[in-house]
Amino acid sequence: MSLLNRISVDPAVCHGKACIAGTRIMVSVILDNLASGKAREEILNSYPSLQPADIDAALAYAAMLAKERHLAM
């Protein structure tokens, strides 16, 4: 399974912001936590429904956006 399959964009969930599929945890929340220096383990403890691969998916999504590619979700 591609990491990006773990990301969901649904207008009915979190105002259409990119989230981890099956949750309301926005990719931006994960990235903000990482940017502030929080360890992966701390993020996973704060959001028990997250899996380690979800953090990898958030990073992969951010990397795709940084490449200025169009993401069709």
Main attributes of the structure:
73 residues, mainly alpha, Arc Repressor Mutant, subunit A, two-stranded antiparallel sheet
Describe this structure in words.
By secondary structure, the chain is mainly alpha-helical. It has a single domain (3-66), classed as Arc Repressor Mutant, subunit A, CATH 1.10.10. It has three helices and two strands; from the N terminus they run ββααα. A two-stranded antiparallel ribbon has the order 1-2. Helix 1 (27-35) packs across helix 3 (52-66). The longest helix has 15 residues, at 52-66.
Distance between the termini: 15 Å
What is the CATH H-level superfamily?
Winged helix-like DNA-binding domain superfamily/Winged helix DNA-binding domain
Order of helices and strands: EEHHH
- The total of beta strands comes to 2
CATH fold name, please?
Answer: Arc Repressor Mutant, subunit A
What overall form do the CA principal axes indicate?
globular
CATH C-level category: Mainly Alpha
Mean pLDDT: 91
Fraction of residues in helix? 40-55%
Look at the helices and sheets and give the structural class. Answer: mainly alpha
Please list the strands of the largest sheet in the order they lie side by side: 1-2
Low-confidence stretches: none
Number of alpha- plus pi-helical segments? 3
- Count structural domains: 1
Strand content: 5-15%
